[in-house]
Amino acid sequence: MKSPYEVLGVAPTASSADIQKAYRKLAKKLHPDLNPGDKSAEEKFKEVAGAYDLLSDADKRKRFDNGEIDASGAERPQQQYYRDFATADDGHPYTSSSGFADFMDADDALAELLRRSQQARANRRGEDLHYRLAIDFVESITGAMKRLTLPDGATLDVNIPPGLVDGQTLRLKGKGAPGRGKGGPGDALIEVEVLPDPRFARDGDNISLELPISLSEAVLGGEVRVPTPTGDVMMRIPKGSNTGTTLRLKGRGAPRRDGGHGDEFVKLKVVLPRSPDPELEAFVTNWSRGKDFNPREGRTS
After folding, report:
1. How many other C-beta atoms can be found within 10 angstroms of the C-beta atom of residue 151?
2. What is the pLDDT of residues 207-219, one digit of tens each?
3. Within this chain, do residues 250 and 226 fall inside the same structural domain, yes or no?
4. What pTM did the predictor assign?
5. Is 56 in contact with 5 (CB distance < 8 Å)?
6. What's the CATH code of the domain at 149?
């Protein structure tokens, strides 16, 4: 750890006025409010403020010069405790008033800046905390109540609104890190991951499904059971349906923002029996019109 004299750029024999002057010069250059987002400047300012906190106090400076305390204000190893002045909020020396007490009566922009900064930090809002939550595809369509287990073992109940999309972030007000003073807690920001479903795919407010049907259902038509996010429904297949024929189940898609729902599109896929069927083979062998039909006629590729 650097010597506080080295941090402020003054000699150990420097007067109080020289120390104050050096601190003012560095504070004007490094104060976080003058360098928003600059973490390096913020860390240097903390170091400068800590050095000034020690050297501006005659008793602390004397004890440091005598080797009784170190540059952080902590007692030397033979006494394992910290002085009261070393336990400022968050361990940041510049959150106490000592860093600008000498300037409180001055008509000085730096004094006002430090005063406002100290007040803001004393009542700082808590940080937002970020989490990730995986949900099933069906839950993204219908909505659900999910419980999220946090790293510390605590839990959050998360209300998943109907129609949520993958990557959407939910904000839970006041469920983030606690604030300081009068500053309220931050929020919990939960990014939702929608897990893929082997049955469904989503396109905007509509969903699609590939439905296997038998040769008999394709030729003769009939009613079949079709999965939807809200449960199975019966759907009529027209006679002479083919692989690729797409039917619509109105209102069985995702909720729309303006009300109502999208649709579910069911794409048929004709599937033959898994095992060879001698009866079917005999029929096709003797089916003369089937032999005359060329499904590739008229195609360019």
Report:
1. 7
2. 999 999 999 999 9
3. yes
4. 0.59
5. no
6. 2.60.260.20
